[in-house]
Each structure stands twice: as structure tokens, then as C-alpha cells.
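Priority: low. Protein: Actinorhodin polyketide putative beta-ketoacyl synthase 2. Input follows.
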Amino acid sequence: MTAVAVTGMGILAPNGAGTPAYWAATLSGRSGLGGLTRFDPSPYPVRLAGEIQDLDAAALLPSRLRAQTDELTRLSLVAAEWALADAGLDPADLPEYAVGVVTANTAGGFEFGQRELENLWSKGSGYVSAYQSFAWFYAVNTGQISIRHGLRGPGSVVVTDGAGGLDALAAARRLLRRGAQAMVTGAVDGSLCPWSWTALLAEGRLSTREDPDDAYLPFDSRADGHVAGEGGALLVVEDTEAARARGARTHGLIEGYGTAFDPAPGSGRAPGLRRAVTQALDEAGWRPSDVDVVFADAAGTPQLDRQEAAALAAVFGPGGVPVTAPKTMTGRLAAGSGPLDVATALLALRDQVIPPTVNVSCPKEEYCIDLVTTVRRTRLRRALVLARGHGGFNSAVALSGP
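Result:
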């Protein structure tokens, strides 16, 4: 599979809405984590989140769309519009079925669904919106983006938890190979409502600390979980020849992808992350020494951090490659974290700078990784992005500069 070009990016993160704002905040180490305000968190043991505060997505959309969407779908529509604008791509200029959409999702329109269920039980069925029939569904973002922009090419949704955003990029890449000219892909995810919050609490991986600077500390001796957030990135990916033919600017290339499942618990076999990494490198035709930086999944729990560090040491050698996790400034955005890391890695390759992993001051020596905790300027040509999902999903994407 030849590399595909990333020609457009639409970024929405708790520490910055839009690429310039997000990148400036990330390089300055400014976090978007804080007290949860979307609903009253006082009855819950976890009260921190990464919320997008400086954007009113509903104000950017027609009223008819506001009535049939929840916050995540509105954010996805905004990100898709920004990505297409950044790519300089008007789908109307291409053949009717040339452009499609693949997104990833973990919660669908849970906020919309919760509101309508509350109406059902408190007021009766006559108060339930007809839009409930589709607004809750995992494919809602793909569908709404497709309708809004007239994208009649192939469309689908990937549901593999935190790995889903990278898996969506891979699915889009396969569709380009099958004849699509361009795809909108990635994820804006992380529903913040009591319904989804209860599900996140059941996983047992959220930090219960109250200080946002002390709650999400991957690879740190104090790590006790992560902070959840909302956001992510939608990207426009194109066949490199098609992008070149229309004179598109290229942010970078997706050169390799790998995925693997963890074995059944108690099997004694190694987790699948190392296999995903080696698959991505093999597909890109890279040696481990070709990778200049790794954007880690950074689970924030000791067991999972240990597994990730072991996989990196096995592939690259102890401390063999700089590792960073700028998601400590945004929280883990469910399926949105992987595409956001891809966009961040492309910006890092553009500016020759590794963004920091903030707040981590006591990295465990036993992990044997070169964790970047302050901005590091260095020569960068290639990057590797990792993402893992609850239930054993592992994915990796190999990126190069334009």
C-alpha cells in the first residue's frame, strides 16, 4: 500500500479549538483539564474532565441541525468543515462518489439519548424527539457529515474504543486504495453526560484526584488513572497522486498501520501492542531507528503503562526513542485521542519540535523510556502514534513529513 496524504486537519481539544490555538497551547504546556461543568459531578467519585470551553459549536450550525444533534455531533460537524477548508477541498468539484467519510465513536449521541429517555420517563412518549431514532447511534457523526457536505462516497464507522480513531484512518486508507479520491476521517469523541460518565466509572480507570495537575500522570510513580475529555481531530486524507494533481498542500503522509488484539487474560502471552508497532513499521518499510518520536497511548495506570513501556523497549531498545504524551493536557478523548495525536505529530514534524508530557515529574526508571517532559527541539522526519482500547485493541500509525 502506498502512502496517503493528509491534506486537511480540523482540531478541537480542551486546550484549544482550531489548529493554531491548540498548537500554541500545547507547545506552551497549557492544560485544558479542570472541574467538570457539563453536569453536576458532586454525586460521583470523579469530578475532573477535559471540556472544550472556548467554542459554541451550536452557534456555528443551522438551527435545523441543532435540533437533531448533541454536543459531540455538533463538534464533529465543525471539525469536518474546518478540515475540508484546510484541505482547500470542495467536494462539489469532484465526481459525485469520489469523497466519503469514516469516523470512529465510542458513545454515539449518548447525551441526546439520555435527554430523550428523561423526557420519555418524566413526560411521556409524546415528548420524545423523532430524531432519537438516529441521533444516539454510533454512525451519527459519519451520517451527519456526509449529508451536510454531500459526501456520497463510501461511509462507515469504527467502534474499537480508544484505538478506533487510528483504525478509522486505516479504513479510510483502504477505501482510497479501492478507488475513493478523498476521505474525511478520524474522530471527535468523549461524551460528557451522566449516562456515559457512569460507563466510564465502571471501567475503573479514571483518577479520583481533585487537582487537575495531579490527576493524569502516565509513566509516573504517582499514576492512578486518567482524566476523560471531549474532542479529537478530523482529517482529510487523499491519494497522493490526486492531491498532487489538484495542487493540494500536504501536512504529511500515512505510511504504515498495524493492529493487534491482546490475548485472553491468563493465557501468559504478551500484549498485542508490540505486534501492532512492528506491523506499522514493516508496512512503512522502516527500521526502528528510522522513528524519531513516539506519541504514546499513555493509559495512566501502572499496569498498562508498564506494558506500553515494555513494548517500546522491545522494539526500540531501552530509552531508544523520545516518547511523548501531550494528551496529558487534554485528557483521554476516547476514539478522538488517536487522530488528535496524529495531527499533533504532523505539526511536530512541520515545526521540528516535540511537545511535552506535562505534570509528570517522577517518571519511573523501570519503564526505561526517554519521556519528553519539556519542549524539545530536534530533527524530526518520522513519527509513530499509538492507541489502545479497552477490551484489548492495539493500533499504531507511522507518519512522515511532507
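The two ends are 17 Å apart (CA to CA). The chain has two domains: 4-245, 255-393.
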